[in-house]
UniProtKB/TrEMBL annotation:
GO terms for biological process: L-asparagine catabolic process. Gene3D superfamilies: 3.40.50.40, L-asparaginase, N-terminal domain (3.40.50.1170). Residues 1-17 form the signal peptide. Pfam families: Asparaginase, Asparaginase_C. This is asparaginase. It comes from Kwoniella newhampshirensis.
Length: 389
């Protein structure tokens, strides 16, 4: 019996000590280097934004989830793949590094760079890449993946993930989040749903998700719209058939040039200084989003300033300050655009893309208001200066 136990122990040790048969293959046509154990497995693009807790470690011990970064257990994207080696049993990877210096420093060129690359690599007729995963700092992950969602329009999955705890933590959340993201990227039921976020054993729509907590792992939620799927033993169980969010618009990333128009977001509050609108316009903003109190409420002074700036060509969108709800337009067309269910940061991105794509004011208003008008007023028709939808 003892001899059998010793033999079994040696067998387990030998398995654990066996090196992974990881290989790399350069593709001169695409400029990509594929990391794999089995070249017959599905191909997945891994977009690394150069920041984020998922690649970070800490010098301050395993309980530190605040002052980490640049310490022990920091990873490269390749190191993340090797560290979560189970992903190599289900896929092969090519890493594209997107220049960045921190999630809080990101601007709209980040999502546009990613979307342009993903569109060219995944949406081509002869592409054999099945999906994409993006690792990103959580502070602005929702903004980047929302921008990708509006500009990446083939049916293949695009999954964003990250972590709230560094790799050095007592219980890091990054490894499982990363595995779940890869599993979702190769899963056939992930297609035709738009971009998604894989976090804490769930998939949530990038169109509706927002970061709801600055510290805890259960942070990316779409509470009113719900989860798309739950991961069980590493497999996604989809609650619904494939569909896209109702008001999701698409902008062709390959026809958009840099830089995107400047759009500023202002936070509405009691005693709001309407001069801030003029300051934004004087600083080069051609669009302004005001996160109004309640369902987009703004002061009389702010409204008058926005109307004055509209005569100068500056477009103002009223969004909402609360996490949930919608800014519903009135039955008559107005010079201020209502954001519907889009929050301030989402409204900013859609307004940038609409202006960069050549939409005029009426076209931009249709993008924001068309679906919700059709629902609330039982018709997409309203009147303003003789114009109808």
């Amino acid at each position: 019996m003892l001899r059998s136990l010793i033999a079994a122990a040696f067998t387990v040790s030998a398995v654990l000590a066996s090196p992974l048969q990881i290989q790399k293959r350069d593709d001169p046509n695409s400029g990509l280097t594929w990391i794999y154990k089995d070249s017959s497995l599905p191909k997945v693009m891994l977009y690394n934004t150069g920041d984020g807790t998922i690649l970070s470690g800490s010098r301050n011990g395993r309980l530190d989830n605040i002052n980490y970064g640049g310490g022990v257990d920091g990873l490269t994207p390749e190191g993340l793949i090797y560290n979560v080696s189970e992903v190599l049993d289900i896929a092969q990877f090519a890493v594209v590094n997107i220049p960045g210096t921190g999630s809080a420093n990101a601007d709209s060129d980040r999502f546009l760079n990613i979307s342009k690359d993903a569109t060219q690599r995944l949406c081509a007729d002869n592409s054999d890449i099945v999906g994409a995963v993006m690792i990103h700092g959580t502070n602005s992950l929702a903004e980047t993946v929302f921008g990708v969602d509006l500009t990446f329009n083939c049916s293949k999955p695009f999954i964003a993930t990250g972590s709230m705890r560094p790799n050095s933590a007592l219980s890091p959340d990054g490894p499982f989040n990363f595995y779940d993201a890869v599993r979702a990227a190769i899963h056939p039921e992930s297609r035709d749903r738009g971009a998604m976020i894989a976090f804490t054993d769930h998939l949530v729509s990038a169109f509706y998700a927002t970061k709801t907590n600055g510290n805890t792992v259960n942070t990316f939620l779409a509470i009113e719209q719900g989860y798309i799927a739950q991961f069980i033993a590493g497999q996604p169980y989809f609650f619904y058939g494939a569909s896209l969010p109702k008001a999701r618009n698409y902008f062709d990333p390959l026809s958009i040039t840099y830089p995107l128009p400047k759009v500023d977001v202002l936070y509405g509050h009691q005693g709001f200084d309407a001069q801030l609108l003029y300051d934004a316009a004087n600083n080069g903003a051609t669009g302004i989003v005001i996160m109004g109190v309640g369902p987009g409420g703004i002061s009389t002074a702010a409204r008058n300033a926005a109307l004055d700036l509209r005569s100068r060509g500056v477009i103002t969108v009223t969004s909402l300050r609360p996490f949930f709800g919608a800014v519903v337009p009135g039955p008559q067309f107005a010079e201020l655009i209502s954001s519907g269910f889009l929050h301030g940061e989402q409204s900013r991105i859609q307004l940038q893309l609409a202006m960069a794509s050549g939409y005029d004011f009426d076209g931009i208003r249709r993008l924001f208001e068309g679906d919700i008008r059709a629902t609330v007023y039982n018709s997409a028709t309203a009147f303003y200066n003789g114009t109808t939808y």
